[in-house]
Design brief:
Elements lengths: L8 E7 L5 E11 L3 E6 L2 E6 L3 E6 L17 H5 L5
Antiparallel strand pairs: 1-2, 1-5, 2-3, 3-4
Length: 84
């Protein structure tokens, strides 16, 4: 298994003790002969190399979507025309 250099975004699929597979998605912090360390949404995950099924570099996370602001212009905003 070849991993990219630390600092890259990766996905690592590995087996839990129950035998079920799960993924760790995040920044690769480091790796050695026994452990791979990924910093993802669930925090820092230390994964035993023996449990890893697959691992690869993935593209950067998409930028967060901007809110449209439509909620600020509800029906009351259209009815207040300023006359009065």
């Amino acid at each position: 298994m070849t991993l990219p250099e630390p600092g890259r975004r990766v996905v690592v699929r590995y087996l839990l003790p129950s035998g079920q597979a799960t993924d760790a998605l995040g920044e690769l912090l480091g790796a050695d002969a026994e452990t791979v360390v990924v910093d993802g949404k669930r925090g820092i995950e230390r994964i035993a190399v023996a449990a890893i099924i697959a691992a690869k570099e993935v593209p950067p996370a998409p930028a967060p979507r901007a809110r449209s602001g439509r909620d600020d212009q509800g029906p009351d905003a259209a009815s207040s025309s300023g006359s009065g």
